[in-house]
Amino acid sequence: MEQPDQLEKLPSGSERVLYERIGSADWEMREVKLDVHEQVALWDENPRLQTAKMDGFSTEIQLEEALRGSRGYDGLRKSIQEIGQMQSIYVKQTPTGKFLTLEGNTRVAVHRELDRKFGSGKLAGTFRYISAKIVPQNFGDREIAVLLAGIHVRGSGVRDWERYVQARFVYETVVGRPGKPPIMNQTQLAESMGKSLTWVNRLKDAYSFALKFVEHCDSEDNPRKLAAEKFSVLEEISKARVIGPQLRDFDNVTHDSLRDEVFEMVRNNAFKEYRDARFLKEFHDDPDAWQQLNSGEAHIANKLARQVESKTSSPKAKIAGLPQLIRRAVERGDSEFDDDDVSQLQQAIDIIEDQVHDGVHPYRLAIKKAARTLNKASRADVKDLSQDDLNEFRDAYGYFMGLVEAHSTVGGQ
Asked: Which of 177, 218, 259, 332 is most buried, judged by most C-beta within 10 A?
């Protein structure tokens, strides 16, 4: 079917041709001005709207309403009203002749709202037209995914999607969704976004976990919205030490009850912030702490997390973990310990010994340590000594024994 040429309504000279690199190819696009009411259609699959979507959007009015409630809308409206549109939207012409907004739906909604608001006066008509880049007809799902990832995931600006939207985008791109197969694999998506494969897999796994939470909360009015609100906690739980992989082992029924328990904790606001979930294993290993988490008390995990942090951050706890920490470093071969490290550790030991043996002169402790060291000497240790080492020891021993004979009542008996 031949498409109506809606660009005929535009003033002459309002169109230009440009080339833009998206993915591994350069694309020719026409940049034009489009009427936001008559020529532009909003995209009901806009990833930013997925937290609000329940049974879908049937009208443009519903789409606009959802966009007005999205993060950053008010700030963008103020910016466009004061300084105008800064970046073009991306659209693709449909068989009806209208242009579907692939990127920039929020800007379209803002322009529509402002155009209605300023129907008369000096700003009348200012917001009716929006600058748009028309992508070619062979610009497919893969290219759309790369375009959106480059704008909303790879960057670090105000246009970034929230974490839940990023995770859903990653999941649906590499896993697919009902009626739509995967667009690319994890490696390809990671390369197109400039992210690591680990980053992509982590978000994919976190969203899989969030989907299970949605199933668990099916009695809620909008479980997807709840999952989005709790996503940072859910993501942290899904990667928790030991217990995280168990909770993500969806095919193992032995973990189903544990997963249900944890989901109820999240549902009941047991976790005040995502950092509280980092101690899930410690909570699970402590029957009393686990019982408190199951109590339904809001933010109880925050209180328990502070208790765990207090224990693990104490000097005693750090000392207990030091031997294992050093052993692992030596085994990995990524350590370069030297005499300075030994000296610093010895200083720490001296401080502790002074505190443990309060009132006992440190020299007495040093003598005991020296005696233990000499008693443990082996043939190999003796053969390894240099003449200088032996001379230094003999001189020190002679000096010390002279003091003992002259001043010690123990030595004179």
From this structure: 259
Q: What is the DSSP letter of 48?
A: G
User: By CB neighbour count within 10 A (0-12 exposed, 13-18 middle, 19+ buried), where does 353 fall?
Assistant: middle
Which residue reads 């796994």 in tokens?
205
DSSP string, 322-370: HHHHHHHHHHHT-----HHHHHHHHHHHHHHHHHHTTTS-HHHHHHHHH
Token pair 């549902």 in the structure block, residue: 267
From residue 97, give the alpha-carbon distance in Å to each of 5, 143, 161. 7, 21, 30
Token pair, residue 16, equals: 């230009």
d(CA 205, CA 221): 25
Q: Where does residue 242 rank: exposed (0-12), middle (13-18), buried (19+ CB within 10 A)? A: exposed
All structural domains of the chain with their residue ranges: 6-139, 142-229, 230-312, 316-373, 377-413
Q: How far apart are the first and last CA of the chain?
A: 118
Per-residue pLDDT of 162-201, as tens digits, reads 889 999 999 999 999 888 899 999 999 998 888 899 999 9
Contact 103, 143 (CB under 8 A): no
Distances 129 to 64, 93, 106, 209, 400 between C-alpha atoms, Å: 17, 16, 14, 42, 96
List, for residues 235-294, the tens digit of each pLDDT value: 999 999 999 999 999 999 999 999 999 999 999 999 999 999 999 999 999 999 999 999
Burial class (CB in 10 A: 0-12, 13-18, 19+), 20: middle
At 70, the amino acid letter reads: S
**CA–CA–CA angle 217, 221, 224 (5° rounding):** 60
